[in-house]
Amino acid sequence: TGLKIVKEKGARFLGITSQHVSVEQRIADMDRIGIDIQVLTLTTPNVYFSTRKRNLFLAKMSNDFFADLCQKYPQRFIAFASVPLGHPEDAIEELHRAVKDLRMKGVVLGSNIDGKHLHSKEFWPFYEEVNRLNLPIFIHPMVPIHPETMAEFPLVPLIGFLMDTTQSVAKMVYSGLFEKYPKLTLILPHLGGTLPFIFERLDNGYRSYVECQPYIKKFPSEYLKQFYYDTVSFYRPALMCTYYAVGADHMVLGSDYPHVIGDISKSLSSIEELNISQEEKEKIFGENGKKILKL
Question: In CATH, what number is assigned to the domain containing residue 121?
């Protein structure tokens, strides 16, 4: 098939398809389905896996490449910046460049940064700057910290990604990050992992465990309802769970395109088939995205 497989510690997490590298094929697919514009982000493993110097170089290279695409096709693409968050001062420097010079509309972060989840205090100076700039953060899942148990089957993309997103965001909430930086706007992939399904469990943890109480002033679900959830699960009960948890106002269209298990056609049909109003569908298809991106 020509598919290139990428593994970490023996566990498959990425298959590189032709659409990953062909702009022409990507635009043709968008035209075929009726997608007006895509937000481009760098997928796993992003720019966290090498030396400090090289990670910054990779971030600049990726951001320059995406910026060139957006300049060439301004009606079709918007991009979010990648930053080497393992060194927050470098991340802040590159964020400023990406927003000011490259006109990027947000930032993408992996769900863990070289094994550290996103609530880690060393990252808070970066969040302070994102909060000041009022930029959205898209969280893309990373290979979980111990992927060896997921090597027998391709469980990293099927389960591991969802678990790492769930764990990282739950820690961000309990840590008080959104109390300190209330303008932070998160866009969560894959319907937020398992988060909408466990709102009450997380709230119960706040009621029951003193460790979950010191840094937040309200139930975890109240923070989680402020975020946006992309619709990458084309299973109607899962979509409706998220709909009931956060409402159509906090759902945005996702496709997992161009990954092997993504489906750009189902991304549309799965929303069209929901028993919700046409106005709510339009919010999911584009109106919420325009609001987040200030278009």
Answer: 3.20.20.140
20 Cβ partners below 8 Å, 6+ apart? Answer: 258
Average pLDDT over residues 226-233: 96
Helix (H), strand (E) counts: the chain? 13, 12
Q: Domain range for residue 212?
A: 85-293
Is a pLDDT exceeding 90 seen at residue 262? no
Q: In angstroms, rounded to a whole number, what is the distance separating the alpha carbons of residues 98 and 102?
A: 5
> Per the domain annotation, does 76 fall within a domain?
no
- Report, as an integer, the average pLDDT of 155-171: 95
Within a domain: 34: no
Task: For 142-161, write each residue's pLDDT tens digit.
Answer: 988 888 888 888 898 899 99
Question: Is 53 a member of any domain?
Answer: no
Say yes or no to pLDDT of 94 above 90. yes
CA neighbours closer than 13 Å in the CB half-sphere of residue 226: 17
CA distance 259 to 65: 20
Instruction: Tell me the pTM.
Output: 0.92
Could you tell me if residue 7 is inside a domain?
no
- Per-residue pLDDT for 134 more than 60? yes
Q: How far is CA 39 from CA 57, 187, 215, in A?
A: 22, 12, 33
Can you list the alpha helix ranges (DSSP code H) found in the chain? 23-33, 52-72, 88-100, 124-133, 155, 161-174, 177-180, 199-208, 220-224, 236-246, 264-272, 278-282, 288-293
